[in-house]
Structures are given as structure tokens and as C-alpha cells.
Amino acid sequence: MHTRRIGDVAVSAIGLGAMPLSIEGRPDEERSLATVHAALDAGVTFIDTADAYHRDVGEVGHNETLIAKALASHDLGKEVLVATKGGHLRPGDGSWTLDGSPRHLKQACEESLRRLGVEAVGLYQFHRPDPRVPYAESLGAIRDLLDEGKIRMAGVSNANPEQIRQANEILGGRLVSVQNQFSPAFRSSEPELRLCDELGIAFLPWSPLGGIARARELGSAHAPFARIAEARGVSPQRVCLAWMLAKSPVVVPIPGASRPETIRDSAAAPDLVLTPRELAELDAA
Hints:
By secondary structure, this protein is an alpha/beta fold. 40% of the residues lie in helices and 13% in strands. The chain contains eleven helices and eleven strands. Helix 1 (29-41) packs across helix 2 (62-72), helix 4 packs across helix 5 and helix 8 (223-232) crosses helix 9. The model has no long low-confidence stretch (mean pLDDT 96).
């Protein structure tokens, strides 16, 4: 597996987005654990989770607990950088809410530490700006967690360029990652990607294949990806991830998966080198 960097840590060029293992439509635990183990066997050393990745009332942190169990039951589990997030909540009725207050973020981090079974979170990211709380106050809490050693690295998610610059300033130049939505159908995060490239900050595209419901339709929805995939004898999803990786060395896609075969296919994307002509065609798609 090719590697890239998040902060001072080398990670696999493709990560695993673990959300599908815990929300609506999730697989049973046996298949979930098998999916994580397949990722590790394929060389994946970066997993993205969050305390809000759960389905029902009373199971906050379901995904964190699942990931901790999967890593503890595999020989390569200790080699994985786990990124989790705080500031987003799911009441259990299918909706998403926000709480970016410093008090909540600090308490959420403590609970994530407990569920993950670690002394410090490898990468902790502010999940989504809360319009009721000044961004500087939310990031101040992340800075405090970093200074206290509760987290080893800090990042932000769903942030615009101004917020990225502000976060990096508040963190004293220690911002290591930005996790924003980016896919063939959602390209409005190009400015954030370019800024991360300029600053040397890891850019982590979430839903890089278009999301749980649309990932299988990527080829039919975006013909150039299907044409190149057919010519290369690979899946359109693998072409998509290779296209993203070619955009900048700071890009580390985190495709979701709920089946072992899906993450195995995604993990092979770094080996697919697209030509300049193919990349231009995909950029224009």
C-alpha cells in the first residue's frame, strides 16, 4: 500500500470510512468486523469514525466501539491511526443536530477516549461548525485537548477556506487535516483542497464515491469514469479514487464500506496510475 502523511504520521493512501457499519442499513456485527479486518489485510492503516455514527437512541459511539473491537481482534490493529470526531449528534430519529460548545466537545472527547480504549485520540476533528457557537470557541476547545495531550493531532471537518485558516491560527499552526465532502458529483470543495495543498494539510474527502446510496451508480451517473474503468479492466469506483489521489499528495480519500470486497477494491486504487489525458477527461466530466 502506498502511503501519505497526516501530520507526522504515515498512513495508507486510502482510508476506511466506517460510518456505513453503524447507521441505517448497517450490516450485522460479523460482517462489520470482517470488513474492517479486510481493510487491514489490504494495507489500510487509517480509519475514520465519529461518536455520531450510530443508528438508535442510547447507542452513541456505536461505531467507535465497533472499531475498537475490530482493531483489538486483529494483529495489525495497533498500526492503525484512528480519527474520530465530535460536535455532531444523532438523537436517534434519523436526524442530525449540532453542539459545538467547548463543554460538549471536551466531554465528547473523554467519552471517545473511553470507547476507543486509548490514552490519547490519534486524530480528533471538529465535526461540523455550530452556528450557535463562535467557531473560535469550538476550536479553542480542540486546542485545549491538544495541549492537554488528550488528542495527538487535530483537524476540522465541513470547513470553508476562512474557517481552515482560522482553525490553523487558533491551533498555533498545528491543524493537520480537513475532512470535507468531495466526489465526482460534489466538487465544490475544490477551493479547500487547493488550500490544503498550499498549506501541506491532509485533505480527507468524505463520501468520495458519492455516498452509500450512490456509490454503486457512479459509473452510470458519470460516463467518463465508466469508460476509463472498462478500458483499464477495473471498477469505476477504483478509477474515481485514483483520480482523487492524483489531484494532490495531501489527498487521502476515506471511502465507506460495509462489505470486505468493497474495501479491497478501494484499497487497490493507489496502484492505478491514470494518464494526463484520462485525468483531464475526468476533471471535465
